[in-house]
Amino acid sequence: MRIKIRKKHMFKAVFLDRDGTLIQERHYLSDPEQVVLEPTVIDALQLLRRHRFRLIMVTNQSGIGRGRIKLRQFLAVQRRLIDLLAPHGVFFDDFYYCPHHPTEARDPYRKFCHCRKPGAGMLLEGIKKYRIEPQYSYMIGDKRADVEAGYNAHVQPILVKTGYGSNYSGPAPGYVADTLLAAAEYIVARETKERF
């Protein structure tokens, strides 16, 4: 029996899209009262935590750059999401957001950047900061940009069929799951299998 041993002091992570993956998709969400968790999110995040995955949220928020929502509104929505999860013992190690858009944002947000998914900038920053091993890590989202960002960061992308995921068109993800819990169960099963 051969046991795979990770490098000392390296960690594994699941990077998670927000809208359509963790919470119900709402165009340019600015009202914390409209935050509704997608089904199975709590169970999924608890399962990943039990298996010692770091949880890092990565979200495109060009609504800030376009002037559709204010930064304080975005942060209020983030706080509402955190408050919904906290009573269940779920927390994120970090979250990253990209307010840019290459053509439709206002200055200084109108620019091409590496952080906007499908760019891998947000994931790579998390990988560096938390000493993440990409080969043992995942990106979960409901859009083509999420899948491509996963590939660009060399982590396995998983598509969930919530949000826009049911109408997905793009490169084949590493796995397709009906819910976030199904994605988490796949990750845990795969990790258990690779350990031996």
Summary of the model, kept short:
By secondary structure, the chain is α/β, with parallel strands linked by helices.
Span between termini: 7 Å
- What helical percentage do the residues reach? 25-40%
What's the architecture, going by CATH? 3-Layer(aba) Sandwich
Radius of gyration: 16 Å
CATH class: Alpha Beta
Mean pLDDT: 94
Give the CATH topology: Rossmann fold
Spell the H/E element sequence: EHEHHEHEHEEH
Low-confidence stretches: 1-6
Portion in strands: 5-15%
Polypeptide structure, described:
The protein is built from 6 helices and 6 strands, in the order E-H-E-H-H-E-H-E-H-E-E-H. It is an alpha/beta fold and 196 residues long. It has one domain: 3-Layer(aba) Sandwich (Rossmann fold). It is globular.
Give the helices and strands, then pairings:
Elements: E1 13-16, H1 41-50, E2 54-60, H2 62-66, H3 71-85, E3 94-98, H4 121-129, E4 138-141, H5 144-152, E5 156-160, E6 175-177, H6 180-194
Parallel strand pairs: 1-2, 1-4, 2-3, 4-5, 5-6
Features:
6 strands; 32% helix; 196 residues; six-stranded parallel sheet; alpha/beta; 6 helices; Rossmann fold; globular
